[in-house]
Write a structure and sequence with these properties.
The relative contact order is 0.17. A seven-stranded mixed β-sheet has the order 2-10-9-8-5-3-4, with helices on both faces. A four-stranded antiparallel β-sheet has the order 11-12-15-14, with helices on one face. A two-stranded parallel sheet has the order 1-13. It is of the alpha/beta class. It contains 14 helices and 15 strands. It has two domains: about 5-10 and about 260-380, Alpha-Beta Complex (Aspartate Aminotransferase, domain 1); about 15-260, 3-Layer(aba) Sandwich (Aspartate Aminotransferase, domain 2), CATH 3.40.640.10. Bound molecules: pyridoxal-5'-phosphate.
Length: about 375
């Protein structure tokens, strides 16, 4: 099959405009042209993130951005509360542990949201906690957390709120300044419609203050150095930047800006609702409840007798639709549909039609056209 429909929660399809921009000739990363590129990209990211906070960029996977937070903001032995409601929350807890933090995890059933009241209780029980880490959009379960509610539940202003927003940046509303989120970690390969390879970190004044009081245990990830270079008259990065990815990201940011942020968020929300309606019309269940279901990824529970690997293999080989499996303890129990980045209704309709046919191939009793019809109802109602 020469074409496929990539519907995983990242990396996501890169718009042709962005891919071509990434092929531009190399430039001097210490020259004025690069300075203008870096300035436009960081200012564009500030707009997408609705923040005045400095946004730092590193050549890395998103996990690198998470490690950078640990290296700059946590001293060995410091008490950190990590809310774990899926694989990526568990990863952040592990990163904090490896960095020497005294980690307390607050565990929630996978497929449910972090409860602000539970965060409040944990902080009341333990006044030594100075940082709360939350996965804004838990990609392994398809759940979006109420970051604003979590901040409101935190009883002390000096507690830093850190959000892994890797699968929400550029797709789901996130207002760090308004909501009081001190640290946002993102990555290029999902909502930002850019190839993998860029991690971003946005830090509030409160987070910078903490960084100033903490000895950074990394040369590469040093936030203060990155900010110093960024704030030079000709913006730069301390080490060689991923120039081609920045070209691509600049183009994708221009596209998001032209569409309008509210429209981008709405598009994701509507497509997600259409996916959920389609999936349910097939008689399948979603892992997340409607109140916390993610706009960028839907986790679908595999019914008895339907083997995930078989289903995804058939979808890929026969129908050219690529979906993702479950992770960690959800492996073999769910599959995931990504609807993030450069997605539109066509992708959703094709995905649901293919899913329906593959389910029939595997013996599920499904009426032709049910899933697409249910999705059409959602899409039609939204105009
Ligand atoms: C919520 C979340 N956090 C962290 C990561 C890790 O990102 P990366 O694979 O770029 O390191 C991902 C990737 O899917 C994610 O969705």
């Amino acid at each position: 099959m020469d074409r496929h429909c990539l519907m995983i929660p990242g990396p996501t399809p890169v718009p042709v405009r962005a891919a071509l921009a990434g092929a531009a000739p190399m430039i001097n990363h210490r020259g004025p042209e690069f300075g203008a590129l870096l300035r436009e990209v960081t200012e564009g990211l500030q707009r997408i993130l609705m923040t005045r906070n400095t946004v730092l960029l590193f050549p890395a996977a998103g996990t690198g951005g998470m490690e950078a937070v640990a290296a700059n903001l946590v001293a060995p032995g410091e008490r950190v509360l990590v809310a774990v409601a899926g694989e990526f929350g568990a990863r952040f807890a592990e990163i904090m542990r490896v960095a020497g933090a005294d980690v307390r995890t607050l565990d929630f059933e996978w497929g449910t949201a972090v409860e602000p009241a539970a965060v409040a209780r944990a902080l009341e029980e333990d006044p030594s906690i100075g940082m709360v880490v939350v996965t804004h959009n838990e990609t392994s379960t398809g759940v979006t957390m109420d970051l604003a509610g979590i901040r409101r539940a935190i009883p002390r202003d000096d507690v830093l709120l850190v959000a892994d927003a890797i699968s929400s940046v550029g797709a789901i509303e996130l207002r760090p300044d308004e909501w009081g989120v001190d640290v946002v970690v993102g990555a290029s390969q999902k909502g930002l419609m850019t190839p993998p390879g860029l991690a971003l970190v946005a830090l509030s004044p409160r987070a910078w203050e903490k960084a100033g009081r903490t000895r950074c245990r990394s040369v590469y990830w040093d936030f203060a150095a990155a900010r110093r270079f960024l704030e030079q008259p000709t913006p730069q990065t301390p080490y060689t930047p991923a120039v081609s990815l920045l070209y691509a990201l600049r183009e994708s940011l221009r596209m998001l800006q032209a569409e309008g942020l509210e429209n981008v968020f709405r598009r994701h929300a509507v497509l997600a609702r259409a996916v959920r309606a389609g999936v349910r019309a097939l008689g399948l269940g979603t892992l997340a409840g409607e109140d916390c279901a993610s706009s960028t990824v839907t986790a679908v529970v595999l019914p008895d007798g339907l083997e995930g690997k078989k289903l995804l293999g058939l979808l890929r080989q026969k129908y050219g639709v690529v979906l993702a499996g479950g992770q960690g303890r959800l492996a073999g129990r769910i599959f995931r549909v990504g609807h993030v980045g450069r997605v539109n209704w066509q992708d959703v309709v094709v995905t649901l039609a293919a899913l329906e046919m593959a389910c029939r191939d595997l013996g599920l009793e499904v009426e032709h056209g049910r899933a697409v019809a249910a999705a059409e109802e959602v899409l039609g109602a939204e105009g």
